[in-house]
Amino acid sequence: MIALPFGHRQAARPGHAMVLALALMLPGAGASEAAPSDNRAKLWHTCQTNDGEAGLTACMAIINTRGIPKRERATAYYNRCYKFILRHDYSNALANCDRSLEDNPSFVDAWLNRSTIRSGLGQFDLAIKDATQAFAMANSNSDRAGALRNRAAAFVRRGNIAESRADLDQAARLQPGDVYNFINQADFLLQLGRPDEALQQVARARATRATSNFSQQKMYSDIGVLHGKSLVAMKRYSESLPVLGALLKIDPNNAEAFALKSVALARTNNVAAARDALSTARRLPLSSPDAADVFREAEQLVREVDSAMAPPRGEPVAPGATPSRERNNRVALVIGNAAYQNVSPLKNAGRDAEALAAEFDSLGFRKVTLLRDQTREQMFAALRAFAREAETSDWAVIYFAGHGLEMGGINWLAPVDAQLKTDRDVRLEAVSIDELSTAIEGVRGLRLIVLDACRDNPFAPQMRFTNSTRSLGTGLARVEPEGGTMIAYAAKAGQVANDGDDENSPFMKALLNRLKQPGLEISMLFRFVRDDVMAATGRQQEPFVYGSLPSEPFYFRTAATASR
């Protein structure tokens, strides 16, 4: 439980991401000395004790209080950061931790937790810098040891074995006999490919009595991850299953645990359960950068089994010919944001979305989800739901029409409730296009994102910049999606798209027209769309496609389905 904002200091609390130290709020340093009103006291209590949506909302209400002292606001941001870390939602955690440190640069626990987040995102160089800063500012051996352990975990993953070893040894000297000495030793040994020795450290951790300074639930979650990983690495799959089952009772949103379970089940020939465990893992945010490797192994095993068991489908293909794909197992999420609450509404975004959803439906998509005027929370909920649909589909398409912006090379989509009064608000109020990519990463066939969000940015004139290194670009920035993913922009990087003067935008008119054309492979389809839009706008707008697809052709409408 997070500590109250007034009172004595709590000790550092370990997290379960890469076995890194996760600090509690520093109540004295982060709160106002003035006695709060009854309402404010209730908000603080909810902000600190509720790890769900109510807690996040209460913390934001405190942040938005007029005249709130910076150090108190830093604590509220910190509590939001903490809650997002517990969910493995490192993107939102980072945005809130950044704001906490902007308001209170001497907040040791925020530096410590940001190193946790950086490692969770695989940003090991930055994690090392933050852990070093936390160590330099720490006033207790507990915080110093936590910072050293965080830095050691990042060092070993970056290949700095000697530095990692030195930090672990120093942490053990600062806190001799602490259970996390054994936990972090196990993590270190696993990274070196020595699971048998790691298992010995896990046993020592389980035999060590936990102190009251740590959350035992998180401690046992950390131990469970390392225990399961060690057994799977040693090919003791049957033994790993009850260990992973116990872990998931403690931490039911741990994607790495589900992926490990999928591997163990596949290796013990329980293929259906392995597929279910992998399906669950795909719906969850990565709990650690190490999880990606486990995912790959699990997915490869399931693919191999599926390939061996799959019956032949479709008509026979002539020798040397490449099979084409236009499958009915296709899903689409179509979002049109037009009724913006804090800037001028858009004329065609909603109509464009409706027209495209209708066209996808006529093309025989298995499911088309059309959503209008979504808030940020609604967009995230929609993406989570769509991820579950997409993972069992051959095609997954996401279309977004609305306002978008590029800041510092990152592209963001604006929900209808966005205010974006400062540059710092972008991370808290907008949705990164990386979230769209994540929602469809489990698809085995075509992954397509279409962004009609390159219009003039209406938030720019009102946005106050707090960091001179940040800047807004025109339109959206170019992207480099992973193989098998295609991202189509209504206007190429740096350009602005035309919203149109009549029922649909020039981009949507061209896209709808080409979707009706049978026998047009998807890459060629978007090339035709480009030419159509260039002609319609006097060469002022050039649609552009980023990413790459495999050699297999994909068709929205083959010649055989031209009558649809």
From TrEMBL:
One GO term of the biological process aspect: proteolysis
Keywords: Signal
Leader sequence residues: 1-34
UniProt superkingdom: Bacteria
GO molecular function: cysteine-type endopeptidase activity
Residues annotated as domain Caspase family p20: 328-458
Protein family: Belongs to the peptidase C14A family.
Protein name (database record): Caspase family p20 domain-containing protein
Lineage, uppermost ranks: Bacteria, Pseudomonadati, Pseudomonadota, Alphaproteobacteria, Hyphomicrobiales
